[in-house]
Every structure is written in C-alpha cells, then in structure tokens.
Amino acid sequence: MIDDPVTTAERLPMMALRGLCVFPSMSVSFNVERRASIEAINAAAARDRRIFLVTQRDVMDEHPGREQLYDIGVICNLRQFVKKPEGGLHVMVEGLTRGRLLSMNAMSNRFRAEVQPIEESPAFAETSRQDARIRTAVELFRQYAEFVEGISPDTIMSLSQKNDAGYVADFIAQNVYVHYDKKQAVLEITEGWQRLDAITETLSKEIEVLNIEQEINFKLRDRLMHSQRDNVLREQMRILQSELGDDENSEIDRYRDSILALALSEDITNKLLKETDRLAKQPFGSAEGTVIRTYLDACLALPWHKSTKERLDINAARKILDRDHFGLEKVKERILEYLAVRQLTPDAKSGIICLVGPPGTGKTSVAISIADATNRKLARMSLGGVHDEAEIRGHRKTYVGAMPGRIMAAISQSGSNNPLLLLDEIDKLGSDYRGDPASALLEALDPEQNSTFRDNFLEIPFDLSNVLFITTANTTDTIPRPLLDRMEVIEISGYTDEEKLQIAKGHLLPRQRKRHGLNGRTLRVSDEALREMISGYTRESGVRQFERTLASVCRKAAVRIADGEKSVSVRGADLEKLLGPRRFLPERLSGKDEIGIVNGLAWTSVGGEMLEVEAVCLEGSGKLELTGNLGHVMQESAQAALTYIRNRCGALGIDPEFYKTRDIHVHFPEGAVPKDGPSAGITIAVAMISALTGTPVRCDIAMTGEITLSGRVLPIGGLKEKTMAALRYGVKTVLIPAENEQNLEEIDQTVRRSLNFITVRHMDDVIGAVFGALVSPGEGTDARADSAQSVAAAEDKPSVNSANCPVQ
After folding, report:
1. Catalytic residue among 412, 722, 799, 802
2. Which residue from 57, 412, 558, 623 lies 20 to 30 Å from 673 (Cα-Cα)?
3. Per-residue three-class SS string for 686-724
C-alpha cells in the first residue's frame, strides 16, 4: 500500500458495519437496528450528514471495541434514512473517500471517531497494457454477472466506459458477493492499479468456484428431475393399482396368506414372514425389494406338499420298461425290486442309482422310462462341464442375479416333491477356483442327510428323501470316491450284434419310419440289411450311429416314394447304393499260424477290440524294446513277463543267457491309440516265448489275463466286451483267467455257442493250451495239476462288464 497523504483529521459520528463494506463513490443501502448505530445516524443527520462507516472483524460482537474494528473505513454522505414499522432504520449512504480510524470514544450511547481522510489520485489508463488490465477486469465482471442476478447489462456497459482503474476496482468490489474480509482487503489498498489487480485475482477465483458450483447444480438438478419424475410415475402407478385393487399392501397380504397356507414348520414360516416384513418396509421399485420378491417367489414356487401317486404295480411297470427298451435286464430288475420294497414298506427311502456304460447304450432313455413306469415326474439336469459349486447349491441371494441351484430349480420345475431327478453325465463334473460341484452333491445324494438339504439361495431346508435320484456316467474313474460310495452302480455293457438287430426291429426302425412319414408297407428293411448296417457301417457299443444310419435309409426311401414309387424294400445288396461303400471292412484273422504274433483282447469305452501283439527276437545285448503307445502299467506287465521267462527258461527250452545276447522288441499295432492296463500280461509272455523258441502260435486263439512274476494268472475285467470282439474276428478259442469263470454266466447266448473257453490259473496252463507239451515234464508247478479246462460252450453263461479296465 502507498502511504496516506497528510490531511487534517476530522471528528465524525461512527457506525460499525457487520458483514458489509462500503467503497468510495458507491451508494449502498442497509438496515440499522443497534442502538449505538441509530444514534450515530441521528447525530450525522443533525450536522452535515457525514458519517464514518467501518467494518467490524466479528459479526457476532454486539458491542465492538477499537480492537474489533478495521483501521480503514469510508467517510460517507447520509443520503436518506427511513424508520421501519417494526423498529430500526433503513439507511442509504454514498461513499466519499477512504478514512483511517485514529481513535474513538463513546458519547451518549453512540461512537464518535477521529478520522484522517485518505486522499487518492486518479489512476487513468495511459498505456495499452493498462487499458488491457481494465478491460480484463470488466470482462471478468461480465462473466461473473452471468452467474448472479441483479447486475444488468447496462451497468456493465457503463463500467466499460470508465478509464479510472481505482474506480473500476471499487465498483466491482462493491457489487460482487464475496466474504467481507476479502472486500476489506481491497478497500485497504489505496493505489488504484494495485487495487485493480487484487480485485481481478479475487474475481478470477470466484468465477472458477461458481463454475464448479454450476456444474454440481446441473448434476443435482438432473438427478432431482429424474427422481421427481420417478416419484410422480410411482405415485401414479400406486393410484392405478389402488383403483384396480392391486396395490402394494395387497401384494404383501398375498405373500403372508400364501406362506401361512403352506403350513410349513415354525422356523421356515417365521423366516418367510420376516422376509415379507422386510419387503413391506422397502420403497417401491428398490433393488432390495426386487431381491426379496425373487426370493419369496422361489420359496413359494417349491412343491412343499405336492407329490404324484407312485405306481407300485410291478407287472404294469415291467410292461412299460419292456415296451421302451430291449435288454437292460439288470436295470429293470433293480427298479422292480425297488417297487416291491415300496409295496411292503411305503416309508422306505428312495435309492441313488448310477448307470455306467458306453455312450449310446440307453442310460438316459431308460431313466425316462423308469419315471414313466413309476408314475413320477421327470426332472433332468446335465452336469457335463459344470465347474461352479454354486450351480449345484445356488448363489447367496446378496449377489446380483442370484438364483437357486440346479437341484432346487429342477424340483420346482417338476412341480412335485417326489420326482425322478436324472443327473446326466455325472462323470464329467469339473472343479476349479469356484469350488467343487462333486462335493456339493454329497449332501443331496446321501439318504441320511438329504431330508434337510439347504440351498444357498433359499437358506431353508427342503426334504429330498422322497426324490429318486438316477445318475449316468460313461466311466467311474473320474467320479470322486466319496460320491461314488453314495451310489449303487449298475453297469450297462455294450450291445451285441444280435441285440442291436432286435433293438432295430423293435424300436429304432419303427421310430424312424414314423419320423419320416413312412410305415411298414412303404419301407421294408430285411434282417440281412440290418446286419450289414451293424457290421459294415457302424462300430460302436451303443446304437446312436446305427439309428442315424437307419434315418439316412429312411430319407433315401422317402425321396423314392416322393418320386412315385409305391414302396421300397432294402436288402443287404442295396446298402452300397443308399449309403455308399462300407465304412468298416470285415474283421478277419490272418488265417496262418505265425511266430511271435499273438491275439490279445482289449476293453475300450466303445466296446471290445482284438489287438495283435508282435514280438521279435534279435541279436543284441539284452534290451527290451516296447512300442505302440503303451502306458506304464502295460510296460510293467511286459517286464513281469520277461522276468517269468528268465525264471523258467530251462523248462521252456530257452537259452539261459538269452537276456545277455538277444534283444526283444514287443510291438502293439495302431500306435496312435494309447494302450494301458495289466490284462495283456499273458499275451505278451506268449509272444516272447514264441519269438525265443521259434514256435508258431495258433491264429484262431485269443487270450486275456494278468501275469505275475511266478506265472500266476490273475482275473481281468470287461470280459463280455472282449469275448464279443473275439467272436467278431472269427476266433474259436479264448483263454481266460480261472477266477473269471463265474463271469461266464452273463455272456451273450450267441457268444457262448460260438466260442470255446479255456480257464487258466498259471502260465503253464497257457503254454499247454497254446504250444502243447512245450514245458518239460517235471519242470512245471503244481498248477499243472489244474490242467487247462475246456468249458463246454453249451454250459457257458453271459459275463459281467468291468468298467475299470482301460484300453489294453
């Protein structure tokens, strides 16, 4: 600030201003209520109407002292004052000049001050820069006027004509709405250009704040407009619903009535009523209200007391099962046993059955027939590829988009609390960071726990003990042991060619005729043609590909009938024209006994196969080479066979030093196909013995069995599929472990009549059956006493399938 010019001090009435500053050359009006201020106004009016106005520091101080007043004020001219009806004065003053407060004293309820006027020199713009500074201040004031009301464009236009920087600064400071201490800071600057710079800076900051406030106000206004619009629409909806008798209160009442009408347990009823009370407190359209409505709807949609009357008539159930499926005797027998138990003990718990077998063998369709036979509603859920535990047990309802798990959703969809729940492809469940679905099924599939099954979304117990669970799988290898332990496994093996023929005649062909608009008169397919389709155009354990082949024949026939033919007869010789060349050539043996080549039998997921094992003996250093994409178990079987041969080389007529001077290479053809399992042990041993002794092996004999170091032959699995493969290839004799003799009861009739089975307990029995008297007399073990037994084909019975035997 510039030092004040020396002027003569004056004694003037003084009034303290609260939250207000007056600038020279400016007219200001305000109200006066304090007694001391009114007396000062009266004193000024009685003299020359001049009064000193100074701002007090604290607006709350009713009786400010000298220290509570600023040093700089304004000497004003009292232009007019008017008494107000309610008391006090309305005063208008005009600023004359700045003044410095030197001292003050109290006189009869008013203040009188000794004031030194401060003379100011005009600060006219003499350069372009000074003119630009004034214009900048005026432009900022114009921008400020756009945010506030009360500043007219004429006022700004008039201000823009002024050339005095001090006057422009005072005018802007008087008319902006900023805190009084900021105005006081401008008032105390006596030099005009400095005052203009100070008010320009203050105005710039104020405009920035106003811009932010305006942006906030716009956003708030938009939200309020949307909120008000929503409120108006909601209110209109309430009025309309009330007029229609469908208001929110009636919705709450309906929920309460529905909950009470279910007559559930006290805990469940209280839980649902509590959720209903929460819903009643929610504002209309709230997200929480939507979640509660979804929850209540899901709970009320469950069939708490709805059930179907179970059909316990065994004869009627047997007719339905036989009508829909050929074979599958084990499954049918188990269902009839279940119905018989239910007749005798109606409160018996439903079982959990797992149907295991290759694809296309009718696992899913027989489950549907079981639902029909027992008069239960069917609910199916596919578990293939499910990785999330919440898919089974549901999501917590606090999550967005939460819903019940698949089990409760299937129960709700069935509309019955005692449906048949089909869990398809249970062996294809996965697990990752989201949980293990197989573990989530443990509670549902445990008869001791599922009476109080709790879904994460519903959070209330539901009784699953009346549900008949049937699961399907292609293999049990991938099913966790705790889950497998809760299920009764029924293995469904692949169909024989004769069974496929009967299935085609009784089920597949009539179904395809109906789907393609044909009948028994318009399309006739001979048994010869069906057998040719089975052997030459399909190779599978089930009948899916076979049915697709029949569908192709029906389409060809439909085209011919549409062209004008009356009927179509399909014989074996016609298939090549209809379906093209055979996809699979007839499987035949080589027809010649060869050294080192032995027929082994293998089980695969699509049925049995016959694999030729080749062994070659070469000059070398005793290496054993194994090729053909073999697994660790099969490689260990080869090592066990070699050790057995070394142990018995004297009896077998083999050079005891062969393991030092000869290399043996064992190969399994079709090297692209992985092979593993122990049941090729005796096959590998026979191939090695044949190669080492130079003795040919009969080409019409096949074998399967696990070998030990001492030569014992251990049982294997998949006997039914393996014997079917042997028959398909034209084998006459099959060597099987003696402990598998009991499985011969379940082998198909056609296979029993066509094959000669020889049971063996020791490798000596195998050698005797394959080579004759290769083992020297007296060199054999006591197993020789158990000579190879020929089991008459007429006495053989069908075998069981062992699903845990992998590809060999």
Report:
1. 722
2. 623
3. HHHHHHHHCCEECCCEEECCEECCCCEEECCCCHHHHHH
